C-alpha cells in the first residue's frame, strides 16, 4: 500500500510529489499509546536485514585485513647510491650526494652556494657524466666554471632570464620537467639562489613532489640551490650554508688596481646538515667548517 505526499518547491506554482512505501519503513513512527506510556519506540528490523548487515561487516573486515601488510613482510628500501659532492668535508658530513633523490642547498648570498654547486658539477663531469644547470637568474660565470674544473662539453646550461622573477621560475619548472622526463643526466641542478624568497615559496609543494617521483629510481642527482628551504619534506637532504669569515688582501703594488683596493682570497664556510631521510634513525644536527679559495688566490 502506498500514499502520495505533495510538497511545494522554492519556486511558487511548481509542486512535486513522491511515493512513500509503507513496507519500506524500518523504524516506524511510535504510536500514541507508546508515547503516552513513556516507552521508547521499538525498532523493527527484519532478520533478513540483520543477515545482510552481518555479511557486509564480514566483507569489510576481510578487506581491511587484506589491505594491512605485516611489518615482517615489508621490503626494506635499499639505500641510494652516494656520489662525491666535490668537497671532502661535505662528503664526510653527508656521505656524498644521493642518486635518485632531491638535495637542497640553501643559504644567503656569499654563503658558499655557488662554490658547492660548481664543485658538484665538476665532480660529476670528471666521472664522465652529462649534467644540466637550469639557471633562473642567468648567474653562472663560465670562467669560474672552467676554473672549478667543469667540463663545459658535458654541461647543458639553460638560461631562464625572464622579464620577471615569476616568469623565470615558470620557465625553470617547465625545463626541469622536460629534463627529468628525458633522462640521461647524471646531475640536474636548479639554481634558484638569486630568486626572491617570496617568489620561490610560490612554487607548489605538489611540484616538488612530482620532481621527487620523477627522479626516483634513476641515477640522477637532483640539486636545488635556494636562499631558504622551499621543498619541504620532498627533499632527502637539506644542507644549510653560511659564511663564517671572509679574508681579504690588499692589491699587489705591481697590479693595475688602486693601492687601497682589496681582493677576496678565501671564505670560511659553515655547512649544517638539517635533515636527512636516508637513514631510519633521525639525524642529529651536525655542522662542519671548510675554506673555499678564490681562483686568483692560487
Structural commentary:
The protein is built from eight helices and twelve strands. By secondary structure, it is α/β, with parallel strands linked by helices. The chain has a domain of 158 residues: 3-Layer(aba) Sandwich (Rossmann fold), CATH 3.40.50. It has an eight-stranded mixed β-sheet, with helices on both faces. The N and C termini lie far apart (101 Å). About 8% of the residues have low confidence.
Question: What would the keywords be for this entry?
Answer:
alpha/beta, Rossmann fold, eight-stranded mixed β-sheet, two-stranded antiparallel sheet, globular
- Percent strand equals 25-35%
CATH homologous superfamily identity of one domain: P-loop containing nucleotide triphosphate hydrolases
Tell me the helix content. Answer: 25-40%
Q: What is the N-to-C order of secondary-structure elements (H for helix, E for strand)?
A: EEHHEHEEHEHEHEHHEEEE
Mean pLDDT over the full residue set: 78
Question: Total number of β-strand segments?
Answer: 12
Q: Which class of one domain in CATH terms?
A: Alpha Beta
What's a concise summary of this model?
The protein is an alpha/beta fold and 298 residues long. It has helices at 32-36, 47-67, 88-94, 113-126, 142-147, 165-182, 197-200, 205-215, and strands at residues 2-8, 15-21, 82-83, 97-98, 101-106, 131-135, 155-159, 187-191, 221-226, 237-250, 262-276, 286-293.
Amino acid at each position: 500500500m502506498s500514499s502520495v505526499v505533495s510538497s511545494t518547491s522554492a519556486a511558487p506554482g511548481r509542486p512535486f510529489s513522491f511515493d512513500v512505501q509503507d513496507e519500506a519503513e524500518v523504524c516506524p513512527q511510535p504510536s500514541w499509546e507508546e508515547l503516552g506510556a513513556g516507552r521508547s519506540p521499538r525498532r523493527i528490523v527484519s532478520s533478513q536485514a540483520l543477515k545482510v548487515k552481518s555479511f557486509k561487516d564480514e566483507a569489510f573486515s576481510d578487506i581491511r585485513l587484506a589491505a594491512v601488510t605485516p611489518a615482517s613482510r615489508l621490503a626494506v628500501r635499499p639505500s641510494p647510491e652516494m656520489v662525491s659532492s666535490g668537497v671532502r668535508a661535505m662528503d664526510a658530513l653527508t656521505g656524498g650526494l644521493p642518486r635518485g633523490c632531491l638535495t637542497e642547498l640553501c643559504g644567503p648570498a656569499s654563503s658558499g652556494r655557488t662554490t658547492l654547486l660548481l664543485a658538484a658539477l665538476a665532480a660529476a663531469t670528471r666521472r664522465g657524466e652529462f649534467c644540466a644547470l637550469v639557471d633562473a637568474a642567468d648567474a653562472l660565470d663560465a670562467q669560474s666554471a672552467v676554473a672549478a674544473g667543469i667540463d663545459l662539453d658535458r654541461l647543458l646550461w639553460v638560461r631562464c632570464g625572464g622579464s620577471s622573477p615569476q616568469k623565470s621560475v615558470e620557465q625553470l619548472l617547465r625545463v626541469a620537467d622536460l629534463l627529468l622526463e628525458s633522462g640521461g643526466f647524471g646531475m640536474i641542478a636548479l639554481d634558484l639562489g638569486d630568486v626572491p624568497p617570496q617568489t620561490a615559496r610560490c612554487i607548489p609543494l605538489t611540484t616538488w613532489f612530482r620532481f621527487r617521483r620523477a627522479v626516483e629510481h634513476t641515477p640522477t642527482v637532483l640539486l636545488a640551490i635556494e636562499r631558504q628551504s622551499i621543498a619541504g619534506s620532498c627533499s632527502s637532504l637539506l644542507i644549510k650554508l653560511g659564511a663564517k669569515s671572509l679574508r681579504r688582501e690588499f692589491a699587489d703594488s705591481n697590479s693595475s688596481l688602486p693601492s687601497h683596493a682589496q681582493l677576496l682570497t678565501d671564505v670560511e664556510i659553515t655547512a649544517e646538515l638539517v635533515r636527512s631521510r636516508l637513514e631510519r634513525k633521525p639525524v642529529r644536527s651536525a655542522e662542519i667548517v671548510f675554506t673555499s679559495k678564490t681562483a686568483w688566490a692560487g
